[in-house]
Structure formats: structure tokens, C-alpha cells
Amino acid sequence: MSPGRACGCRHGEGEHNTATDDHGEWGYYAERWKDAQLTPAGQRQASAVGQALAAATAPPAALELICASPLTRTLQTAQHIAAQLPGSPPPIIALEAVRERLDGAQPANARRPRSELQADYPDIDFSALAEDDDTAFEEVRQMVKETVGGRAEEGEEPALHTLANYGFSRANSERALAAVAAEEDDELSRTTAAVRWLKEQAGLEPLFTEWTPYEDDSGTAVRVAAFLAWLSARPESELLVSTHCMFLYTLFGRSDPMADVMACEEDVDGSYFARGERRTVQILFPPTTEADSGGRPKL
After folding, report:
1. Among 41, 104, 205, 285, which is disulfide-ready with 144 (CB 3.0 to 4.6 Å)?
2. Predicted pLDDT at 18
3. Could you give the CA distance from residue 103 to residue 235 in angstroms, rounded to a whole number?
4. Is the pLDDT of residue 203 over 50?
5. Cβ-count burial of 64 within 10 angstroms (0-12 exposed, 13-18 middle, 19+ buried)?
6. Parallel, antiparallel, or unpaired: how do β-strands 124-125 and 92-94 relate?
7. 273 touches 259 (CB < 8 A)
8. Reported pTM
9. Which residues contact 18 (CB under 8 A, 6 or more apart)?
10. Angle between helices 187-200 and 170-180 (to 10 degrees)
11. Bigger pLDDT: 72 or 152?
């Protein structure tokens, strides 16, 4: 990568985000938001990023490339940003390395098949995706199935399926749904009431009350390193990454695994990105001469 700047942008508000706002954290575990899309508010947030970039940049500092996670909400964010830029929009490349942390209990973080994405977004380059199916997500999803005994199978009642994803056994999920059946008939309300019943009446907590550690800081740091290696070979000097909260938190944070991947200046803001937030940084790559090998990129 030539000396220049990189913009990190978290996707705009997604359907799964509003679900958790309205109903609680279990919303991330609902099958109905598999590979969640942007809400209208999320689309406006993404467009606002593009408008801000258009107002702030001019040749020769115009955005040259957008790389995006292959999840729908980040692809949509990239397109909304590109649509606001003057002149010909920059190319958009989908990269597995910059996707959200792999959590098999959260269907929102699964991607659709490459062939389906290519059909929906013909102007985006998906050639870097090695496989059509999302095998990386399915591997960690299988771990969830093996962890939660009696998990609901595909095609059964959505509320039961969501409770099982969340980490309640099938027996307890069925018991809770039966207990609240008379008070709620809407699926989302029933699930919310069932979670409340399990916590308050049965005294049970879901297995996945916090981040499910199937990909921890070390695993995400490996993907950050792969992204930086890819980035270092690119000719562009001005680019934007349309990605996710935890990827950006790992990239901008100062976790122990990241210390081996990148040298991060103390004044770099390592806090969580808000929905639709953009931050601009300069990434400096060490010289590639043999004498200087082994150096780390600097943020």
C-alpha cells in the first residue's frame, strides 16, 4: 500500500440491531435475522458516511477502493457510501478476512452463498471468496449444536429455534413457551416473555449471555493480520473498509494478541464503533527489504 489513509467504517444499523434494542440481547440469536440487512435508518447512516467523504476529499485524495465484509449489511453499507461519491464510484471488493467475529450461535453473522451474493450485487468483486458456502460459519455453528443439548432443528417453531440458539435446552425452551402461550401470540413477544420466564421463574440463564468464544481475540487477530498482508500489497493509497464492530475493535484495540500483529499509537481511539461510524487512520507498513524484515505495521 502506498503511503496514505485508510477509513474504517462500521456498517449502518441492521435489522438484528433494532431487534436487540426492542427485545433484548437474544435478538442476535434469532434465525429470522440470518445475514441481516440494513434498516432504513442504517441506509441513511451509510449514505451520510459517503456524503461526508465526498465533502472532505478531492483529487488526488479521492477514495480509490472499498473493501467490504461479505455479509449483506456491510455490502449494502459499501454501496450506499460509493453512491454518494463524485465521479465514477471506486471498486468494491468483498473479503472474508474483514467479516464479523465467527459466532455460530448468532445467525446474523452468517453470510449467504457467494453465488447468491454475486447475483444480488453484480458490481461487487467476490473473487476473493474461496468457497461458495459459508463453511467458516458452519464449523462454529456445529460447535453450538453440540454444546446445547436437544437443540431445535431447522424448520421448527422460530421462537423455539431462537431460544435454543441462545443457549437454553430444548426441554426448558418448550416449557417456557408453553408457560407464556396464553399471554403472547406474536413470535417476538413470545420469545421475549419466554426468556423472562426462564430467568425469573425457572432461575435459568442462557449459555451464551456474553460473547460466545468460538473465535476469540487471537482468532480475530489472525484475520486482521491476513487483511493487513493483503492491504500491504495493494497499490491504492486511499481506501475504506466496510466492516463490523468486533473486527474494528480488534484492529483498533490493544489486546495482547494484537500486539504481535500491529504497533498501535496511544492516541488512536480504540473504543467501540457506533453504527455507521467512520474513523480515518494512517497505516504505515515497514520496508520490505531483507534487513528490515519482521517489522510490524503501525497504526
Report:
1. 104
2. 92
3. 33
4. yes
5. middle
6. parallel
7. no
8. 0.88
9. 39
10. 110
11. 72
pLDDT at 29: 84
**Interatomic CA distance for residues 75 and 135, integer angstroms:** 19
Q: Are 108 and 137 in contact (CB under 8 A)?
A: no
Give the pLDDT mean for 181-188.
75
Average pLDDT over residues 191-204: 92
Neighbours of 179 (CB within 10 A): 15
Tally of CA atoms within 13 A in the half-sphere of 121 that contains its CB: 24
Per-residue confidence (pLDDT) for residue 23, from 0 to 100: 81
User: How many angstroms separate the CA atoms of 215 and 25, rounded?
Assistant: 19
Other Cβ atoms less than 10 A from the Cβ of 144: the count is 21
Q: Quick check: bond before 89 cis, omega within 30? A: no
120's grid cell: 444480488
